[in-house]
Every structure is written in structure tokens, then in C-alpha cells.
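User: Predict the full complex structure for these chains.
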Amino acid sequence: MRLRHELVAGLVVLAATASTRLAADGLTPPKDLVLPANVAAAIYLPKQVREFRSVFRSASGFQTTDSVQLGNTFEETTLESARHFFNTSFMYEAAGTPGYGLLIAMHPNVKSEDRQLVATAHYAVFNSAGVSVLKGDSVVRWAPGFGGYNSDVMGRLTEQVINRTLTDIVAQLRPTADKFPTGERTPFNPDLLVDKDHAAMSGTGFFVNSTGQLLTAAHVVRDCAVIEVRYGGNSLPATVTASSALLDMAVLDTHVSSEHFLPLRHQGRLHLGESVANIGFPLQSLMTDAPTVTRGTLSSRAGLSGSLGQFQFSAPIQPGASGGPVIGARGDVVGVAVGTLNAEELLKQGVLPQNVNFALEAQYVQKFLQNKAVAFTEGAADSNASPEVPIDDVLPAVMGVRCYQ
Amino acid sequence: MKRDLAGTVASHVIVTLCLLSWPVVAEDTGSTAPTSPASQVGAQAAVLLPTISFRADPSGNDLFDALQSAHVFAHLSKEAPGSPIQLRIYHSVHPAHVDAKNFFSGLLSVGTLGLSPVIMSGEHTMHYELYVNGQRISRYEYSAKLSRNAYTYGKTADATHGLGPDGVVWAKSTVDLFLNDLAHDNSVRALNDEYQVYFGPLAPAAGVAVTSQP
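Assistant: Here is the predicted structure of the two-chain assembly.
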């Protein structure tokens, strides 16, 4: 009996703690709502958000110090908050997630606006049958006051926007086990979970053979829930079939045949000063689905100090050009664009770099494709170099790549 | 929109890593991390990684020489901005709660000695992270509870970067722990193998033995 009393007392304390925390955040779930709800909730967060961890200067004793302190990850904060709302909660995984009654897809972001930090979470909620039951946005604003940024502001903001989102959801759905019974784990269409309005990353790719396999930069397609290849207003779903973090290369499979694909430079030979053109789909959130062509020269056989297998070229590139082909004077691929100098950082040092861009040499691209057993062709050894890089035949083989989370 | 979030945080971290300093002195240390015999470190000697860009906060920066003397990091460099491989080391602290005892002890110091006390204890962590083109392939953390009672008279520089003398000794001891863990890290071995596939065997750095220690 005593144990029972202690258990009840403990639950009361727990419930009081939860309601106190929510009240402190200015949140008021309906009073007749019993929380945590007897519902199993799976929560989807974009990969790049899950591991986000606030970092702030440590305050201790009587003095704020310069020492760094780490807050919880977004995932940890989410799970900690969710247990106040649902009696079972866990992160949604593409494979291995238990059955659930509700699936909550959250897409949070933080931006600075009028000297305020504004945290927004777009959410979409589905039942166990995959039917959409709710969509919305929750917003929390924070203005720096006493103490400024010398505390875990981002962590508190994260916690508040998650609590706000979950409060909004339970207030509208009033979830119970009867309304949202736990269903069998069934494959869920990832298109419904990701934020299709904002690509997590975008880049460029090009077909290397007729079977629909295209090459792009690995960092463009890292941790994507959905990958789309876009060209001429059409979208093709794609999957990663091979990748190398070391070379920053990835092969995507679109499972469509293509008569347009690009040959790689014979034996990867580079000619210093050779005319080159870069084809890419930069700034995809601003531009239409049309390729951009820039011209320049192969300006150095070496990349930055410590780089591996890279050369330098001067054809201008913009964000989104990663993975694009660098076409040589023979109309073949001499390299794949993978990076550029960080102009913003160098400007702080009084240096303004111009058109210092880097590509992985074709010889290493070939080794990568051979290593991964991906078919490709080489350009002819004795083909003539053109004074101007021919691009008309190249364009149909190049396309934009978008990664969604 | 999500990139706003990621970008904000990333730049914050980078700035933090570059500018850290914490002028306090350690009084007492107690490590929760086990020590490892140096002989165990020899197990990773077969792996020799290519040029690695070293990036660290002041506490981590002090570990550079010890790391570079290890075979696996013979090509560790502070001046290799183009390297696809990056080793990041930084120190964090989770301060202990300021309880009533600490609070009144602080007030007493202010009142009687005219000192500005900084009474801090907490869990200190050295973080070691290995990245390949921005993708983290390994992460190790070593923590110890360090308690300190430091008195600062102003913004004087602290050569221990907030660790205190004993904390510095502890931080250096984490190098062996890290090397030992790395010796059994399949991701690092796979990275070494992949490097050799594309770029061939790596020449040892001058003055670095390539054979494993017995």
C-alpha cells in the first residue's frame, strides 16, 4: 500500500513537473486533456537537425567564462519533451521503427529577424495507416535580454519550439489510444515526410553511361531521405549506389536509360592552360531548371595544400555547382567540380580570391568508377582540341540534383 | 530554411573553437577515464593516414605534438586547408551546480578578501572527432571531474586554458586513450585502405618509424 502511495505521489510530481515546464514556456494544453496521452508517437526529424547541438559559453559561480558548454542534441531534447505528451515516443527511422499510432514529421529552423531569434517548426502528422491528420506551423520568438547570448539560448529555444509544436498537436488532435491505435509497421512514403519546399542540399550531376547512372559530389547527397534529379522541368527519383567520402564522389541510379552520357578524359591527362567549361545548376532555389555554363582555363594541376587528386580551374562556379562536369577542349570530362575557396573567410584576412575553384581529376574519377564497378567511357586519345569547349552535345547529359530531408 | 539553422550553429562552433580561453586554475582533479599503457598504442601503428588538417581550440592545440609523434598521425598538419581529412579536438565543461555552500563561500571571499572568486567544478570533456570531407567518421570523448577554486584578479591569460595544471596533465593523458581507441577503429582502417586504392601506399613522414612496436 505504501509503495502504491509513493508511486502515485511520484506520478503527481512528474505530471506537475511537466505542466510546470510547459507553463513556464507559456503553453497551456487543454485542462481536460490527460497527458501523457496513451498513444505511441514516432517522430521524424531531418538528419541534419537531429544531431544539431547547441554550443554556448559556460556560466558558473559568479562569472561567465569563455569556456564552451554543450547542450543536448535536437533529438535528445525532442525525446525528452515528447515523453510529457505521449506515453511512448521514439525517433522514426526508415528501417526498424516499431509500430506507432501517430507519426509526427517536424521541420524546425531558426532565423534572426528584427533582433529576435525566431524558431519555427512546420509539422505534419499521420496516423498508422499513413493518412495525413494534421499540418501546421508553430512559432516561438526570443529577444536577447539580460545575459545576452551567454547561456543556452539555442537549447531553450529548441525546447520551447518543440513543446509548442507538441502542445499544438495534442490540443488539436486530442489523441487517445482509441482514436490512434498502434498499427503494424508499414513502409511509409518518404516524400510525405521530407520538406519538398526546401532542399537540404542541391548540386549537379551527369550521366556516365546509358543505364541511367550519374555522377555527383558525395556531399550533395549525404543523409538524404529523398533524392531527385531534375532536368527540363521533369523530376526523376534517384538512389545512391556507390560513394566515397574521401574523393567526395557518389553514383546515383535513376533506372532510366539515357542516350546522352559524357566520356571521361583518356587516361585522365590534364593540360595546363587548357580551355575548360563548367556546367552546373547553381542556386536552384532561385533559378529555373536550366543549366549554367561558365568558361575558363585549367589553371593549376594542384589544389590546395593537403588536397588529394584535385586541380584548379578558373571557370566561375556558384553554390549548387558541386558535382558538375568540367569539360575540356575535346568535349570530354577532365574533372568534377567539388569545391571553391571560401571567399568570405579570406576576405576577413584582406584577400579577395577570384575564380579559384577545384575539381577532382578525371583519372581518380575513373578509378572510383572502376572500383565500384560502374560502367563509363573514355574519350578518344587522338581527338582534336577545339579552341572553344564544345558544349552543345554535353548539355543533355547534365542535370540538377536535389537532396531532401 | 534548415540550412539557416545549420549554418548558424556551425559558424558559432567554429568561432567558439578558435577563441576559447578560460582563466582559472585547477585545484583538484579526478579522472573517470581509465589510463592505458603506451604499449597498447602500438597496435595502430600499421595504419598511416595521409595529410590531416588539424583544427583545435587552445586546449586541443596543446596536444598537437603528442598526436603528431604517433605513427598514425605522422602527417598531421596545421597548414593543410585542402585536406579532405580533418581532426577536430576541443574541450568542453559541464559546470557543477552552484550550491549554497559555494555561493556563501564566494560571498565570504568577496567580503573578506576583496577577491573575485570563481568557484567552479564540473565534468570536463576532451572531444576528438575525425571528419572526411565534412562527414564525421569517428568521435571519441574522454571526461573527468575536475574541481577548482580559482581566484582571478582580472583578465589575465591562463596558459592552461581553464583546465588547471592537473587538468592539463589529464588532457594530455587522453591522447593515449584516443590513439588506443583509434587503433581498433574500423572506420579509420577503411579510410586508410581506401586511400591506398586511389593514391597508393603512403610514404612515411621523415623520422617516423613505420614498424609496429612489439
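The helical segments of chain A are 2-24, 47-50, 74-82, 153-173, 190-193, 343-348, 362-371.
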